[in-house]
Structure formats: C-alpha cells, structure tokens
C-alpha cells in the first residue's frame, strides 16, 4: 500500500483524454464564437448608422484580397465588394462597395444602408433580373489577430437599380394578397386600403358568408442578434372586405371577435363547415429560449361564427348510450337523481385527460389536456352519412398534434395525420378520425396508429452510443476511478498501450483537429469534428503499433 501510495496517478487512458480534449475544444470554441459574434455585432451597429445611399467619387480602393469583382450586367462597370487585408500584425475585414467605371476610369464608393456584415472569400454572381442584381453568399470573418474565424452561410442580394441590400434568409414572410380568375386563369395582385396583417405564415384564411376573407393568427420570426431568431405567434384577426367605389377594390379591417378565442398557437388546421362556420383544430404553442425550443400541442376544436363575430370552444356531448342510461335512471328514481342527471343548471366540472406516449427510444411524453365545458357546439348541418358514422367508436380522440389535415364532408369533420414531438424525436401520424358536427357526441376512430411503431433514425447511432458511453463513464465517482486505476497493472499490454495512445493524442491534438476539420467541412459541429479526429488518430496509432510489431519480428 505504501509503495502504491507513493506512485503518481497513471493516466486514465484514451477515453479520459478524449473527454478532456472535448471539453477544452468545446469551451474554447464557444468563447471564440462569442467573441467573434460580439465583434460582428459591433460592426453592424456602426453600419446601422447609415440611413441613406451616398455615392462618393474616390481614389482606388485600399489593398485587399479575397474580395469579389463582378461585371455589371447592363453597364460598363465593375463591382468590388468585401475583402481582407493583413499588415503583419492586424487583419482588416471589409464590406465596402466600390463601382469602377470602365469608360471613365474612375472609382465611386457607394454606401448603402443595411449591408451584409464584413467578410472575405465569399461567392458573388450578377444576374440581369430587375435592372441587375448582385448575389452574395457565405464567406469568412477573421478576428483582428487572425487567430479566430467565423464562417457565414447567409444569402444577400444587392438590387443595382434601386441600390438596396436585401438579406434572403431561409424564411421570408409575406403579407401580399393575390386573386386568381377561374375564367381567365390569370393572377392579379390586390392593393387593399387600410392597415392589414403583418407578414406571417401558417395563418387562418377562410371566406365568410358575407363575402369577406378572414385572417387569424399565424407565425413569424425576427432576428434579434447574430444567428438568433425569435418567433412570434400572432393572435390578431382581420377581415378583407370589398370596398365601395368599384369592382376590384378591397379594404382591410381589424376585428376583435367576442367569445372564447383559441389560445396562442401556430400549426393549427382549418376547415369550413356546411353552415359557413370556420373550424380550427389543434396546433402547437412554442416556448422559445435562445438555446431551446419546446412545444405544447393541442387537440381542441374551436368554431368561429362570422355572422355573430364570435368564437366558440366546441364541447362534445358524449356517446348516446350514456344519455340513455341517465334517462332510465331518471324514470326509475326521480327523487334520488342528482342535479347533473336531471339536467340541472349547475355547470359540469372540467375534464382533465392525461395521455402518455412512449417513443421508440424509451422517452415518455405526458400529454395533458383540460376540456372546458362551454356547452357551445356547431349549428345543425345536413344529416351525416350513416356508413361513416358507424365507424369504430373506441372512446378515443385525436392526440394533441399540429399540421394535421382537415376536411368536412356530409356534416362530418375528418382529421388525418399531423405531428407532435417527443423530446428530440418528431412523431408523424397517419391516423384518421371523424366527428359528426350535427350530433357533436364523440370522435370516431377510422384508422388507428401506434406512435411507438414508427421508426426514428438518429443522425448517427454509433455517435450517440459512443456519447452515451462517455457520459456514463464521466458520471462515475472520481475516487472510485482513481482507486481502480491505481490498482491496474501498468505493465499490462492493454494498459500500457492506452497510456501510449493518451500521450500520443495529447501531443498531436491540434494536428488531428485541423485535419478532421478539413475533411468534415467548416460547418460541422465541434462534437463531430472531435470524434473524427479521435478516429483518425486511433487508426494512425494502431497502424504504427502494428508496423513496429511486424518490424520487431
């Protein structure tokens, strides 16, 4: 024991070295990215002070490389954008725009509000559309010391005719309105008067009996800082109505209907009942943080009555068999009947429905829904088809979901598919339900689906397994690890080889990280780069050990 106590602790092997390396790389990467984002944001703040387009004759631009030089598609001009310059101590990044007149042999610096962030090594191309456009994609930003780099993946367009920059994000929201003529098969853009909805997606859009178009809710995003977006779930409502003064004129009107409105949500489904009432089913309410997004899914049904400008929360009456029992109970024992059984005026208690869905990977998601008794249903509609209403009645209702498909036929509301999320997994549904809008008793199941049976493939099963193993190893008690490793025989071949690889990996860490990055690309996550680096290093080390062994023999 004394001899053992004097010994220094041996290395914990390649796994612990890899874990340390991962933490160090991850921490360093986060710090570097935060520093670069702060610097980029600072430069964008300076650019934001530009409020108008200015064109200033100037001498030739300062020295630079990795800029883009593009020929104007219609004029005898060259367009220079961006670039970098290194003076031996400091790196300078540019987002300046210069125009070179070929005929006049003169340069003009053009300052335009809202330009792309400073960059170099981007891709640029010009096209003749719209009076000429310069498209800019991606590129790189370097810190002043030239040691840190940020790679863009954004897309911008410079409208040469109007001299305006526009960022083309992965998402673009619109608020324009078009009509399509069924007679001429032609589209026409409307120019309604009055303030209308802000640009959005996923909103309710339906025709009212009065000939107006109702717009409700929707979803949109705004960029709050570099690579961070914040979502907004809209709950406002508008009517687009024909305006006085001639055909083809329309006007926006914001309305505030009474009644029980749907809670804030997006991804809901819409259909119109035969009596022109608008049905809204399901959806999701996203709770967004900078680093996470969690959604609460719904399976409730709301009705908008345009004639009364009022929202209703649909309430199911329950299966007919229960009502028959209540009537029999009332006839047999009228004195002992409860107030609820005799149709008393007291409101029934809210019903809380709790469902648990177990995903393939063992994740248990508890879905809770509170059904509020409003006593409000849909107005009578044409009699439903008997064959459809005789479908299997299991007492089940559609589970909470978003983006389901909705249709109404013969007074029956059909709900098909959709999706919900269980942890990091997305469950896509293929079940089918129907609800008699005239009876409003219960949902009937036409096609069942077990969400647990759906296959879900992770990005890389091997990586996930390896990550789980590493996390399990990290979670063990440190003292127990030390004791176990102190008792290990350092002369054992596997232990000795593990220590050798640990020393080799530590010594060549930066080399393998750089090599791995060049293979997987600049946009790959640090965790993936780390695993590739470890695999490459391990393969090289094993080959070297094998070569040495063969040489000795």
UniProtKB/TrEMBL annotation:
Source organism, top-level taxon: Eukaryota
Stretches with biased composition (Acidic residues): 456-488
Region of interest called Disordered, as start-end residue ranges on this chain: 1-33, 50-69, 317-350, 374-402, 451-500
Ranges of compositional bias, category Basic residues: 1-10
Transmembrane spans: none
Biased segments, Basic and acidic residues type: 11-24, 489-500
Protein name per Swiss-Prot or TrEMBL: Kelch domain containing 4
Species of provenance: Mus spicilegus (Mound-building mouse)
């Amino acid at each position: 024991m004394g001899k053992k106590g004097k010994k220094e602790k041996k290395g914990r092997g390649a796994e612990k070295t890899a874990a340390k390396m991962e933490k160090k790389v991850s921490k360093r990467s986060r710090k570097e990215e935060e520093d670069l984002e702060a610097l980029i944001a600072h430069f964008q703040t300076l650019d934001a002070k530009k409020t108008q387009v200015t064109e200033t004759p100037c001498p030739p631009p300062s020295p630079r490389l990795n800029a883009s030089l593009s020929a104007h598609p219609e004029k005898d001009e060259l367009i220079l954008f961006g670039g970098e310059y290194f003076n031996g101590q400091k790196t300078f990044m540019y987002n300046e725009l210069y125009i070179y007149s070929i005929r006049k042999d003169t340069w003009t610096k053009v300052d335009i509000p809202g330009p792309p962030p400073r960059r170099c090594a981007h891709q640029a191309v010009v096209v003749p559309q719209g009076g000429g456009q310069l498209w800019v994609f991606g590129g790189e930003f370097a810190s002043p010391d030239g040691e840190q780099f940020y790679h863009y993946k954004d897309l911008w367009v410079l409208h040469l005719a109007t001299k305006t920059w526009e960022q083309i994000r992965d998402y673009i929201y619109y608020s324009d309105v078009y009509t399509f003529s069924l007679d001429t098969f032609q589209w026409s853009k409307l120019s309604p008067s009055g303030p209308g909805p802000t640009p959005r997606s996923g909103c309710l859009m339906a025709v009212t009996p009065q000939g107006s178009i109702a717009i409700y809710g929707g979803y949109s995003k705004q960029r709050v800082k570099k690579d961070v977006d914040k979502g907004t779930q809209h709950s406002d409502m508008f009517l687009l109505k024909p305006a006085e003064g001639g055909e083809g004129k329309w006007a926006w009107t914001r309305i505030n209907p009474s009644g029980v409105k749907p809670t804030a949500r997006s991804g809901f489904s819409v259909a119109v009942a035969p009596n022109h009432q608008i049905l809204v089913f399901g959806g999701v309410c996203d709770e967004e943080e900078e680093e996470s997004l969690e959604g609460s899914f719904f399976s409730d049904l709301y009705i908008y009555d345009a004639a009364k400008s009022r929202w209703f929360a649909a309430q199911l009456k329950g299966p007919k068999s229960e009502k028959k029992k209540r009537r029999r109970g009332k006839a047999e024992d009228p004195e002992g009947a409860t107030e609820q059984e005799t149709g008393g005026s007291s409101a029934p208690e809210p019903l809380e429905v709790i469902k648990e869905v177990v995903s393939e990977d063992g994740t248990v998601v508890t879905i809770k829904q509170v059904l509020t008794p409003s006593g409000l249903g849909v107005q009578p509609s044409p009699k439903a088809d008997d064959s459809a209403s005789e479908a299997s009645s299991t007492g089940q209702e559609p589970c909470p979901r978003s983006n389901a498909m909705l249709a109404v036929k013969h007074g029956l509301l059909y709900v098909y598919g959709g999706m919900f999320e269980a942890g990091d997994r997305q469950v896509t549904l293929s079940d089918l339900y129907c609800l008699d809008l005239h009876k409003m008793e219960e949902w009937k199941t036409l096609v069942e689906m077990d969400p647990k049976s759906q296959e879900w493939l992770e990005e890389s099963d091997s990586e996930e397994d390896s990550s789980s193993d590493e996390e399990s190893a990290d979670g063990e008690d440190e003292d127990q690890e030390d004791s176990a490793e102190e008792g290990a025989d350092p002369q054992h071949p596997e232990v000795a080889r593990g220590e050798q690889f640990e020393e080799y990996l530590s010594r060549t860490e930066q080399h393998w990280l750089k090599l791995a990055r060049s293979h997987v690309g600049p946009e790959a996550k640090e965790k993936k780069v780390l695993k590739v680096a470890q695999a490459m290093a391990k393969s090289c080390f094993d080959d070297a050990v094998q070569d040495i062994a063969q040489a000795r023999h």
